[in-house]
# Entry
Amino acid sequence: MDKILIIGCAGQIGSELVPALRKIYGNDNVIGSDIKTSPMTEELAKGGPFEPLDVLNAARLGEIVTKYRVTQIYHLVAVLSALSEKDPRRAWQINMDSLFNVLELAREKKLSKIFWPSSIGAFGPTTPRIATPQMTVMEPNTVYGISKLAGERWVEYYWNKYSVDTRGIRYPGLISYKTEPGGGTTDYAVDIFFEAIKSGHYKCFLKEDTHLPMMFMDDAITGTIQLMETGNEKLSIRSAYNLNSLSFSPSELYEKIKKRIPHFRIEYKPDFRQGIADSWPASIDDSIARKEWGWKPAYDLDKMVDIMLSEIKKKLA
Ligand code: SER
# Structure
């Protein structure tokens, strides 16, 4: 029986991935861990085992893996793009050292599978922006992007050199209502919903016509589990797969919300995050994921907007 450790379980992805995995593998077989022990969604706190963990502490990570006889790790810890620019050395340390701790442990203990998320941030200003291919120019100019590209090379290296079964996805901006993202450039696409409902006004830190790749969290979770459950022989990519779903700009998202909340107003005050967004793709070519493991998103923009508004209204009520 697989025993799965999620590192960074209280974050935006972890808080939805843990309950989804527990439904499939059983509550006791999915162990949550995070440096922060609160706030935590009730689902997460009561659903199964939890271990406090600073993943920079390799010995503590090893203890948890031994204690639960862990076979798979999803390593979700990262300092996101905007926050990374404020303290580049610290972001590099957290993003890279934590990955090495996980990869080394996987090699030593012969763990069966490792999931590590990359990002559209691994691309850069010289990358083709529309339908960005899987293999293309990658010259990221943010510390987050540099760490993601380096991480991609390292996870692939561990597969080639030590047969550690690594799998990854270049996530677009992820849109969710359960746990908000923090410190990213695509965060506006979550914040805007909360502000539309709370104050009817949103000050957007990106320009109105900035198109970025985005995805509703349910699709991201489905895709992640699908990739992890695909047979080894079908996967040609061990760094991280391109995944596409939505591509929209702040003004397009604003119009969709305004249709449902007519008094909603937006103003555009771009800050340093505009430079980050301008260096990223607008849409992604994900044909390899579709062909190799059957990836297909289920949520379009209207469906996503309807769910976000109704769930956030319930949450704020
Ligand atoms: N959503 C992330 C960010 O904005 C990109 O992976 O930093």
